[in-house]
Amino acid sequence: MTTKSKGVTVKDVAAANFITEYAAHLKRNQWLKLPSWLDLVKTGVAKELSPLDPDWYYVRAASVARKIYLNGGTGVGALRKKYGGNKRRGPRPERFQKASGGIIRHVLKQLEAIGVVEKAANGGRKISQEGQRDLDRIAARALKAANRA
Fold first, then answer.
1. Residues sharing a CB contact under 8 Å with residue 24, sequence separation 6 or more, in sequence order
2. Separation of alpha carbons 120 and 74, rounded Å
3. Taking the CB of residue 30, how many other CB atoms lie within 10 A of it?
4. 126: phi > 0 → left, psi -120 to 50 → alpha, else beta; which?
5. pTM of the model as a whole
């Protein structure tokens, strides 16, 4: 009796493992064109400093690709809410602030240029067939690496 094994999808892998693996994949292949303002920006109004990780753009791109894979039809506004955070306002209560839309928009355009993401008919973005195949292949690699460790 043979059992047919199912393929691994992004949903089968822990988020941190997948994002780390996919960010390394994007950096290794140098598909994304990094903006000139990369070292000057914060990721949102609520942040006090710019990111400390020099590869933060690749990590954000991997995270955005994963979010769109899980929730198709997601647009810039929804992603701004996902990546937003509480702004510290001194003695006053904290308030939620959305993340920077320019960074997310630039990441989406880059992912669209390499064929991972495409525009959805009803607004927002969705994963393309090639993008889904690529992300599932990376997810299988990440799961294999996580099982080895």
1. 58
2. 9
3. 8
4. beta
5. 0.91
The token pair at 132 is: 């889904």
DSSP code for 6: P
Residue showing tokens 């400390």: 52
Helices (H), the chain: 15-29, 56-70, 76-83, 101-113, 129-148
* pLDDT at site 149: 75
Tell me what the mean pLDDT of segment 36-52 comes to.
90
Q: What's the CA gap between 20 and 89, in Å, rounded? A: 32
* pLDDT surpassing 60 at residue 19: yes
> Which pLDDT belongs to residue 58?
96
**Closest residue by Cα to residue 132 from 118, 145, 122:** 118
